[in-house]
Amino acid sequence: MKIDMYVLGLLKFKKDEFVFSNKELDKIKNKIGEEGLRQQEQISMSKPQKSHGWSVYHLQSHVILPKKDIKLKSVKLGYYHHRVIVWFSLSSEGSFSELRKIRDEFKKEADKLIEQYVQRKINALVHENEISDDGKVEFFYTYPLIAIKDSKKNRKKVKFPFSEQTTSMCFDIIEPSALGFSVRRHVVRISIPGTIIYFQKKINESLKRDLLNAIYQHCLYQWKLRDQHQKNRKTEHPLDEEILTRLWMHMIEKMGGRPIDVYTLQLSNTALILAILAIILALLTKLVEAVVTQPFF
C-alpha cells in the first residue's frame, strides 16, 4: 500500500494582514536551512531546493520511528510565507484499519517539525529584530491530505450500508482524461482528522493541486478566520463540522464530485461499450456475409 501524506500548515501571525518582504523571506528560508544543518538534533535538513517560491528541505527520514510494517521513503518540508507542507512518502504492508494510527502518528511528527523548524526560526528572527514584530508566529493550523493507492484486493467486502464509505463524508471524484472523457474515478473521504483520496490509477498533478488549494481555502483559512472572532486568539479551537461541510460542498460542486456526474459517466461508459459492441457485431456480420456469398470457383 503506497501512501503519500501531505500535512498542510497555515501560519497565524501576530498581525493577520502582515506580508513578508522578499528580503525577509530570504532570511527566514536561510534560517530554517542553516539552523537545521548546524544543530546536532534528531533531524537535520539539506540545503533548500527553491521551486516557484517554495523552499523545499529534504529531511533525514530514518530518525522518525514508524511501526514495523511501515517503510518511510522520504520526508520533505516546503515553506513559503504563511504556508508549510510536510510530505511523508510511505509504504505499508498493513491493513486499512491501521491507517488511523499512521495518520495520527505522522500528523504529530509534522506538527513538531513545523513548530521546531518554521515557527521557532521565524520568531527567533523577530527577537533578533531581523524581521518585523508583526510577523511573529503565534499559532499554526494543520490538516492532512492522504493519497492512498488502493487495489481491489485491499478493499474489504462489507455489505452496504455498513462499510468504510459510510463512516464519513464519502464520494467519488471524476478526473477527465486527455481525450476529453472521464476515465478515472477516485474515492474521497472527508473527516475532521483529515481527507483521504483512494486511487487505483495515477492522480493527475492538477487534481492534487486543486485538492491542496481547496483544503487551504475552504478549511484552513476558514478555520483561521473563525478564530479571529474568538477572545483568546492564541488558543486552538478545534475544527468544526461547519467548516468541514464547506470543504465537502466545494469538492462536490467544483471538483467533479456531484453524484449526477458520476451517474452520467456510468451511462456514458455503458453507451460507449454498447456502441463498440454494435460496431464489432456489424463488422462480423459483414465478414460472415462476405464469406457466405464468396463463390467456390
Structural account:
This protein has helices spanning 22-38, 99-127, 205-227, 241-254, 259-293, and strands spanning 2-13, 49-51, 54-59, 70-80, 83-92, 137-149, 169-176, 182-191, 194-199. With 297 residues, the protein is of the alpha+beta class. It has a nine-stranded mixed sheet with strand order 2-3-4-5-1-6-9-8-7, with helices on both faces. Helix 1 (22-38) crosses helix 2 and helix 3 (205-227) packs antiparallel against helix 4 (241-254).
Which characteristics define this entry?
297 residues, nine-stranded mixed beta sheet, alpha+beta, 5 helices, 2 domains
List the domain count as a whole number: 2
What strand order characterises the main sheet?
A: 2-3-4-5-1-6-9-8-7
Q: Structural class of the secondary elements?
A: alpha+beta
Number of strands: 9
- What is the overall number of helices? 5
Oligomer: single chain
Distance between the termini: 64 Å
Mean pLDDT level: 80
Put the structure in a nutshell:
This protein has five helices and nine strands, in the order βαββββαββββααα. With 297 residues, it is α+β, with helices and mostly antiparallel strands. α1 (22-38) crosses α2 and α3 runs antiparallel to α4.
List the helices and strands and how they pair.
Elements: E1 2-13, H1 22-38, E2 49-51, E3 54-59, E4 70-80, E5 83-92, H2 99-127, E6 137-149, E7 169-176, E8 182-191, E9 194-199, H3 205-227, H4 241-254, H5 259-293
Parallel strand pairs: 6-9
Antiparallel strand pairs: 1-5, 1-6, 2-3, 3-4, 4-5, 7-8, 8-9
